[in-house]
Automatic annotation (TrEMBL):
Protein name stated in the entry: non-reducing end alpha-L-arabinofuranosidase
Group of enzyme by EC: hydrolase
Reactions this protein catalyses: Hydrolysis of terminal non-reducing alpha-L-arabinofuranoside residues in alpha-L-arabinosides
Domain of life where this protein originates: Bacteria
Key word Cell membrane present: no
Family according to the record: Belongs to the glycosyl hydrolase 51 family.
Keywords assigned: Hydrolase, Signal
Hydrolase recorded as keyword: yes
UniProt-listed Enzyme Commission number(s): 3.2.1.55
Length: 615
């Protein structure tokens, strides 16, 4: 096998920002993840209307009398529910995963908004099954209206199973109960969990795409105050996520759980700056995606979102004297955040409807901020008519950059190394905003690495690329594989993480053209366990069957159960006989796929999904 390199020839220039990360609040990546808050459901806003498994007391237990109240006595109009705790009663929070995680010797800021008719004492304790974890602290609530109270707890032991309890002597109303570690990434208040932020920072990402994904373009596009109860899943709207945390409305997100927005746009920009990454926010284009496929015809709503997008640019870049620059300055960052790229839309399945609205956003942004690159997208697939139509529209309108997404087998990644060799050099640039092969095994990382050499060779076309998703809490998984995994006390990078790190920490300046001749020899065992994974939402799919190339059923399941989302992984033993992949376990004896390339155990499977009628 011969590789010929020509060091004098100049290939594509590779930008330092080429490889970045895509953060989406999926798999509890924010609350219970990167956002360092230790109390779950701190403002009692979890609701059965959002998720059948939730109540306003989810993750709380009560000893004595307590009820959650949604009335005119609320803390504010975006934090509607509070807890009314009877005299002599105690309420206890169970945190995330196995509980509240504290480390010996570290300080934790406890805060609560409280209201009492007559002066009342609150006692704050932190315990696990083995006893106390910090000295109890007392807070005196003065008679009168809502006020914020704070005490500091210092952990005397390390535990991942802690329980935070608040006991009251007299009747009191409580809201926004928080326990926040002082030791956050870069010591920021309302900041990020250190080990996770450090793992992301260690990648040295060139950019940070946020906050989604399907999180951005699903649900209602209306404002919180306008959305009816069934519309409580609302598209990510940046203005909901800034300012004091008790004024950030909890949202029921697309991934089936509630997000507090404690990690919001200010924190994203701050984090991007802290890790030296270019911020790349994505706003909804008023067409829903991810299986929802609804385009709004409400022109006033569209114009409001366009204005919000212009305001976002002012929030990021405007002087501290401008309306939204002042908001940023008041939050603690008078200097601009240097926004240069902005995504409009995420995987819309209606290319014409999306593009008509995208063009309105683009025109308004370019008129006011001609230096901002407005990123379009190619829809959900890497192939097919939506993708082709979206690309045609983007190309004809000469957009700056098109966001592509694809998830596929490692085999596909190996076979498509040349994907961008034939892309039009004069057309829009590519932002590969989401990609991953199906798995976190070494072979997946290796296939991705091989593919990335193709991205790099085409760095004149592919300007940005990010693996997806970034984070997954092992106890709350909606999507797998993921780059970094964690629970409430530990985090670990996958093989794919290590591969991304290798590339991001060693970005070249220029491609050195090379050619290869010969065929590498194939050796090693070609039998063993193989896996497959796939996903869907029960809103759109039911009775899923996975079949081999010959049509025989390998896996089937009726996913009409309670879980609103599922991930299914099937495994079997495989070997190659007479040039064919054969399943050798007892369950079935189906010949699956002709062994085209015997050096790989992977095979192409088809997922057949029957659409539920009426959905
Ligand atoms: O990365 C997970 C999801 O994949 C994103 O939310 C969406 O954009 C894509 O379908």
């Amino acid at each position: 096998y011969t590789i010929t390199v020509d060091p004098t020839a100049k290939g594509a220039r590779i930008d330092d920002t080429m490889y970045g990360v895509f953060f989406e609040d999926i798999n509890r990546a924010a609350d219970g993840g990167l956002y360092a808050e230790l109390v779950q459901n701190r403002s009692f806003e979890y609701s059965t209307a959002d998720n059948r498994a939730y109540t306003p007391l989810t993750s709380w237990t009560v000893d004595g009398s307590a009820r959650t109240v949604n009335d005119g006595g609320r803390l504010n109009d975006r934090n509607r529910v509070h807890l009314s705790l009877g005299a002599g009663s105690t309420v206890t929070n169970t945190g995330y995963n196995t509980g509240v995680r504290v480390e010996k010797g570290k300080k934790y800021d406890f805060s609560v908004w409280a209201r009492a008719e007559s002066g009342t004492n609150l006692t704050v304790t932190l315990k696990d099954a083995d006893g106390t974890l910090a000295k109890a602290r007392r807070v005196t609530v003065a008679a009168g209206g809502w006020a914020k109270y704070r005490v500091v707890l210092k952990a005397t032991r390390t535990s991942s199973d802690g329980r935070l309890a608040v006991a009251t002597s007299g009747a009191a109303a409580l809201d926004e109960v928080s326990l926040f570690p002082r030791d956050t990434y870069k010591g920021r208040r309302n900041g990020l969990r250190k080990d996770l932020a450090q793992k992301i920072a260690a990648l040295k990402p060139g950019f940070l795409r946020f906050p989604g994904g399907c999180l951005v373009n699903t649900g209602s596009m209306k404002d919180y105050s306008e959305a009816s109860n069934w519309e409580r899943t609302r598209a990510y709207q940046w203005k909901d996520t800034i300012g004091p945390v008790e004024r950030r409305a909890t949202n029921a997100n697309f991934w089936g759980y509630n997000q507090s927005y404690g990690l919001g746009y200010y924190e994203y920009f701050q984090f991007a700056e802290d890790i030296g990454a270019m911020p790349l926010p994505v706003v909804p284009a008023l067409v829903t995606g991810c299986g929802q496929n609804k385009a709004t015809d409400d022109e006033a709503l569209l114009q409001r979102h366009i204005q919000d997008t212009l305001d976002l640019i002012e929030f990021a870049n405007g002087p501290a004297t401008s309306e939204w620059g002042r908001v940023r300055a008041r939050m603690g960052h008078p200097k601009p955040f240097h926004l240069t790229h902005l995504g409009v839309g995420n995987e819309e399945n209606l290319p014409h409807e999306f593009f008509a609205r995208f063009q309105k956003f683009r025109a308004a942004i370019e008129a006011k901020y001609p230096d901002i690159k407005v990123v379009s997208n190619s829809g959900p697939d890497d192939a097919g008519s939506t993708f082709d139509t979206a690309w045609k529209l983007n190309r004809e309108a000469n957009v700056d950059m098109v966001d592509e997404h694809y998830y596929n087998s490692p085999q596909w990644f190996l076979q498509n190394n040349d994907r961008y060799d034939s892309y039009d050099r004069k057309g829009p640039k590519v932002f590969l905003g989401e990609y991953a092969s199906w798995g976190n095994a070494f072979k997946n990382a290796l296939a991705e690495a091989a593919f990335m050499t193709g991205l790099e060779r085409n760095a004149d076309v592919v300007e940005l690329a990010s693996y997806a998703p970034l984070l997954a809490n092992e106890d709350y998984v909606q999507w797998s594989p993921d780059m970094i995994w964690f629970n409430n006390h530990a985090s670990w990078g996958s093989a794919n993480y290590q591969m991304q790190k290798l590339f991001m920490n060693n970005v070249g300046d220029r491609v050195v053209p090379s050619t290869a001749t010969g065929t590498p020899a194939v050796s090693g065992p070609i039998s063993g366990a193989v896996g497959l994974s796939t996903w869907a939402t029960t809103a759109a799919y039911d009775d899923v069957k996975v079949t081999g190339a010959d049509g025989a059923t390998l896996l089937s399941d009726d996913f009409s159960g309670d879980a609103s989302r599922w991930t299914h992984t099937g495994r079997g033993s495989w070997s190659v006989q007479d040039g064919q992949y054969v399943q050798t376990d007892a369950a079935a004896e189906n010949t699956m796929v002709s062994a085209g390339d015997p050096s790989w155990h992977d095979y192409d499977l088809k997922v057949k999904a029957t659409k539920k009628s009426g959905k």
